[in-house]
C-alpha cells in the first residue's frame, strides 16, 4: 500500500513498488489525462509534476515517490483549465491530434514556474517532448504567449 498526494488529494493505492507512476495514475486512480507514449521517458506524453518539477511518469517507479511529495497531473494543473499555458494553447490552437498535449502543457507549465521569462533558446532546450504532428512552432508560440501574460494569466 502506498500513500500519494495527487492533485491535492491523499490517496492510498495498492501496486507493486516497481510499478511506474504512470500506470498508478491511470489504472489505480483513473486520471487518464497523463498519456502513455513510449515507456522509456523519451517522448514526454506522460509528464507530470512532482513537487513542481516536470518528470516522465513512465520511468518513475512507485517506490521512488517519497511520502509527502506532491504530484500534479494535467487534471490538477488549474481549475477550469485556466492556467496561462492552457489559455495560450486554446487561443493559438496549438494541438493538432492532441495526444501529446497534456505532457507538453505540463512541461511548459513547469518551465514557466521555474523561469517566467525564458528565451527561445531556453524553451527549445528545456521542452524536449515529442509531437508526432510536428506542432513545435505553435508550442513555442504558446509558451511565449503564456510567458508574456505571466503566471497569473
Automatic annotation (TrEMBL):
Key words of the record: 2Fe-2S, Iron, Iron-sulfur, Metal-binding, Oxidoreductase
Superkingdom, natural source: Bacteria
EC number: 1.3.99.16
Gene3D superfamilies noted in UniProt: 3.10.20.30, [2Fe-2S]-binding domain
Database matches in Pfam families: Fer2, Fer2_2
InterPro entries: 2Fe-2S-bd, 2Fe-2S-bd_dom_sf, 2Fe-2S_ferredoxin-like_sf, 2Fe-2S_ferredoxin-type, 2Fe2S_fd_BS, Beta-grasp_dom_sf, Diverse_Oxidoreductases
Domain 2Fe-2S ferredoxin-type residues, every copy: 1-77
GO-annotated molecular function: 2 iron, 2 sulfur cluster binding; isoquinoline 1-oxidoreductase activity; metal ion binding
Name this protein carries in UniProt: Isoquinoline 1-oxidoreductase alpha subunit
Annotated organism of origin: Methylorubrum rhodinum
Amino acid at each position: 500500500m502506498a500513500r500519494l498526494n495527487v492533485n491535492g488529494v491523499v490517496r492510498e493505492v495498492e501496486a507493486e513498488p516497481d510499478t511506474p507512476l504512470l500506470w498508478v495514475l491511470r489504472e489505480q486512480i483513473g486520471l487518464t489525462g497523463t498519456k502513455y507514449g513510449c515507456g522509456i521517458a523519451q517522448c514526454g506524453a506522460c509528464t507530470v509534476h512532482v513537487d513542481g518539477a516536470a518528470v516522465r511518469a513512465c520511468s518513475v517507479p512507485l517506490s521512488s515517490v517519497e511520502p509527502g511529495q506532491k504530484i500534479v497531473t494535467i487534471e490538477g494543473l488549474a481549475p477550469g483549465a485556466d492556467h496561462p499555458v492552457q489559455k495560450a494553447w486554446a487561443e493559438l490552437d496549438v494541438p493538432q491530434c492532441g495526444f501529446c498535449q497534456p505532457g507538453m502543457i505540463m512541461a511548459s507549465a513547469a518551465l514557466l514556474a521555474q523561469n517566467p521569462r525564458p528565451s527561445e533558446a531556453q524553451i527549445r532546450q528545456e521542452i524536449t517532448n515529442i509531437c508526432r504532428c510536428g506542432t513545435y512552432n505553435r508550442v513555442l508560440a504558446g509558451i511565449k504567449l503564456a510567458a508574456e501574460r505571466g503566471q497569473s494569466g
